[in-house]
DNA sequence: CATTTAACATACAGGCTGTATGTATGCAAT
DNA sequence: ATTGCATACATACAGCCTGTATGTTAAATG
């Protein structure tokens, strides 16, 4: 007599992974990566460590899954807000969408603190589908279009601006007024174009 | 018959701490914080774990000492290059000095990756004496002087630009051409002033 | 010179990670 | 429907690491 029987293995896997990812997300956000042990994670997820290590090769792999979900949500938000207009307008819309998407609780912690620290910026770039970076780069290129600015310079600019975007997202998530930072980013971008 | 006798306890402490900090610095840069155990550190420093835990309350405290040394070196470089002129010129000189000071091997790793991740941005701000931030803020305020830009806006701008500075330092330490990034930062700053 | 104190060295306890092994259930083919 | 295999776990174990407690030696102090 079993207490629980699953319809299919696929559903079972799906459910277990989801529980683990949700529990891990919550605990990582609360207590950071290093200080959150797998025993605590599986307790909250109501499975055993055996299940965890069956589905994920190690603790970092579980974090990767958490981060990937988070990054995809942000990318979708940017894309949905940026699509369907000029690259320049996409940049404007996408900028606001990014900073706002980053406001769901724990998101800046996961994507801008824990992720880069534990997985490295390299792997983070691979996980990120690059929607933010692409929108930014396309917008800048379009704005510079008739200008003779070198493509390399634009990429450098995009790199620097994306760092500023991240800082803006963090500041807002820490309590700063979003409008102020969105406007500041807009001025920064427009200023960089004027030449 | 002892193999080694120290002149004074002060010198002995000084030497031991220096060895530990140097060994830790090297290993943290190579292998990151979490993957570098205290046994490896004391082995390289040629002391025992007892010495480590006598001088530092825990592993994070040792990292703090490493970071503090590093931050002070950067601050001194900025100050020495920025002092003695107008705030605006100080900003220009300080900008280049910052990015160049960050090029000593391992420095971006320690100050911009490991430090914030392990100690948190809060504690990092306390360790940092804020030379970079002050130079930046003073420069911007001076540039805006006759303008009616609100002080709050300038602080936001400084926050965003400092994130860009950090990214520039990382990019250059990863192999990018310093001149390109220094120029890009200059343009970004000047653009933000034009209004 | 006796005593205290600082600077270690050594030994130990607890916790955590990853692996190895055991078990039950779904699933596929006959 | 039964047999055989693969999947999805659960449990047990080994190794490492951190921080603490305890012991020892040399320096400082009166």
Automatic annotation (TrEMBL), chains A, B:
The keyword Transcription regulation applies. Transmembrane segments: none annotated. Residues 14-74 form the HTH tetR-type domain. InterPro entries: Homeodomain-like_sf (IPR009057), HTH-type_TetR-like_transc_reg (IPR050109), HTH_TetR (IPR001647), Rv0078-like_C (IPR049484). It comes from the Bacteria. Keywords: DNA-binding, Transcription, Transcription regulation. Residues 37-56 bind DNA. The keyword Signal does not apply. It holds the Pfam family TetR_C_41. PANTHER family: HTH-TYPE TRANSCRIPTIONAL REGULATOR BETI, HTH-TYPE TRANSCRIPTIONAL REGULATOR RUTR. This is TetR family transcriptional regulator. It comes from Maritalea porphyrae.
